[in-house]
């Protein structure tokens, strides 16, 4: 298929250029890394609150089952607060690492 | 009295009962079917014409495919691509549910399925179970190391409950974020709308003032479109991040 030849060459050329373009793009910010401040704020806030709620909820449920009210509720509520802060710090650090340049 | 929350009311369309459970076909179920149908139509239509210069529909389908593909690769690496169909389905469903809920109520009132925590929690719980399944199948009991960071044994007694609570809170924050955003946005639009009507009916100088909340509605509606996309995006990227934990455990 001699007619196919120029097309084949063009395809190979395109592949080459695509590869080059892709290689450059890995250095640039990918779509995952520049979501807006609003999204970041909502994510951190909900993580903080959810951990406290889950801690309190699990503590309350265990209290009901074991009849140790209100010991576990208090303990796990406090644990939940710590867990919330740890989760938020971890998420924030992850976002910081994912920043395009790595430096502010 | 019409309240701003009336738009979230669930109406039974076809009453159904199975073994004592109420499984009636409601307006929420109807709109979920519509969302799934619209996604299927848009994507099959877009995939039908495979021209080199894409048509609008083809471009829409290809862009969303490429967008989610890049997101999965950047969050979980090439290995995570086995979950691409899962993440793509979630993203498209949430995104179209958010968008369809924003349609102006001209002939009928669109229902935002993602404004109900039952729906978003079901999606988040599904992701949670998927993470557990993938984690235990890949790593066996080593998956439990996710709860034990590299610290002295004494600290573990304190840290393991914290890690477990932090892990259990994931589906909650995952679902509440999406549901609260949609609920708040739609309520806000409705409240601004009632300001326009209320001021307009007040008469005199106050009627002229009703133009101000009108501008407010325009601004809030624009913000809602941003949030509709943003929340679908955040939902999908968090699914990727959680799946990444299951695939590679913690690497930090």
Q: What report would you give on this structure?
A:
The complex is a heterodimer of chains A (104) and B (252). Chain A is mainly α and 104 residues long. Chain A is 77% helix and 0% strand. Chain A has helices at residues 4-25, 37-66, 71-98. In chain A, helix 2 (37-66) packs antiparallel against helix 3 (71-98). Chain A starts with a helix and ends in a 6-residue tail after the last helix. Chain B is mainly alpha-helical. Chain B contains seven helices and four strands, in the order E-E-E-E-H-H-H-H-H-H-H. A two-stranded antiparallel ribbon of chain B has the order 1-4. Chain B has a two-stranded antiparallel sheet with strand order 2-3. In chain B, a hairpin with a 2-residue loop joins strand 2 (17-18) and strand 3 (21-22). In chain B, helix 4 (117-139) packs parallel to helix 7 (211-248). The mean pLDDT of chain B is 87. The A-B interface holds A 30-33, 35-36, 38-39, 42-43, 46-47, 49-51, 53-55, 58, 76, 79-80, 82-84, 86-87, 93 and B 67, 70-71, 74-75, 161-163, 165-166, 168-170, 172-173, 176-177, 180-181, 226-227, 230-231, 233-234, 237-238, 240, 252.
Number of helices of chain A: 3
> Which stretches of chain A are poorly predicted, pLDDT < 50 over at least 5 residues?
27-33
Q: How many β strands of chain B by DSSP?
A: 4
Give the fraction of residues assigned to helices of chain A. Answer: over 70%
Strand tally of chain A: 0
Mean pLDDT of chain A: 78
Task: Provide the helix percentage of chain B.
Answer: over 70%
Main sheet overview of chain A:
none
Poorly predicted sequence stretches spanning 5 or more consecutive residues of chain B: none
Strand fraction of chain A equals under 5%
How are strands sequenced across the largest beta sheet of chain B? 1-4
Number of helices of chain B: 7
Assembly context of the chains:
heterodimer
Please identify the structural class of chain B as seen in this structure. mainly alpha
Our Rg estimate of chain B from Cα atoms comes to 22 Å
Pair of chains with the largest interface and how many residues each contributes: A-B, 28 and 29 residues
Structure classification of chain A: mainly alpha
Integer-rounded radius of gyration of chain A: 26 Å
| End-to-end gap of chain A | 56 Å
Shape of chain A: rod-shaped
Question: What characterizes the major β-sheet of chain B?
Answer: 2 strands, antiparallel
């Amino acid at each position: 298929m001699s007619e196919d030849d120029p097309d084949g060459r063009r395809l190979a050329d395109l592949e080459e250029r695509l590869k080059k373009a892709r290689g450059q793009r890995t250095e640039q910010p990918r779509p995952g890394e520049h979501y807006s401040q609003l999204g970041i704020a909502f994510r951190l806030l909900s993580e903080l609150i959810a951990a406290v709620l889950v801690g309190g909820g699990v503590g309350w449920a265990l209290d009901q089952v074991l009849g140790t009210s209100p010991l576990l509720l208090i303990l796990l509520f406090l644990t939940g607060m710590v867990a919330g802060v740890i989760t938020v710090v971890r998420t924030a650090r992850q976002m910081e690492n994912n920043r395009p340049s790595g430096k502010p | 009295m019409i309240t701003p929350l009336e738009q979230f009311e669930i109406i039974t369309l076809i009453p159904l009962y199975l073994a004592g459970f109420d499984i009636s076909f409601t307006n929420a179920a109807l709109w979920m079917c519509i969302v799934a149908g619209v996604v299927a139509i848009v994507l099959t239509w877009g995939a039908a014409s495979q021209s080199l210069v894409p048509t609008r529909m083809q471009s829409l389908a290809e862009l969303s495919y490429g967008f989610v593909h890049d997101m999965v690769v950047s969050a979980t690496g090439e290995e995570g691509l086995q979950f691409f169909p899962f993440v793509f389905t979630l993203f498209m469903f949430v995104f179209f549910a958010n968008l369809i809920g924003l349609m102006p109520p001209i002939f009928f009132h669109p229902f935002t399925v993602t404004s109900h925590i039952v729906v978003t929690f079901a999606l988040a719980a599904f992701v949670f179970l998927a993470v557990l399944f993938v984690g235990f199948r890949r790593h066996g009991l080593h998956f439990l190391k996710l709860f034990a960071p590299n610290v002295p044994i004494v600290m573990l007694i304190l840290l393991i409950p914290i890690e477990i609570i932090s892990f259990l809170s994931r589906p909650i924050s995952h679902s509440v974020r999406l549901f609260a955003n949609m609920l708040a946005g739609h309520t806000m639009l409705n409240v601004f709308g009632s300001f326009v009507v209320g001021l307009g009916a007040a008469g005199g100088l106050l009627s002229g003032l009703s133009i101000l909340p009108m501008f407010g509605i325009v601004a809030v509606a624009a913000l809602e479109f941003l949030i509709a996309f943003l929340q679908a995006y955040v939902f999908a990227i968090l699914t990727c991040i959680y799946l990444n934990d299951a695939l590679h455990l913690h690497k930090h």
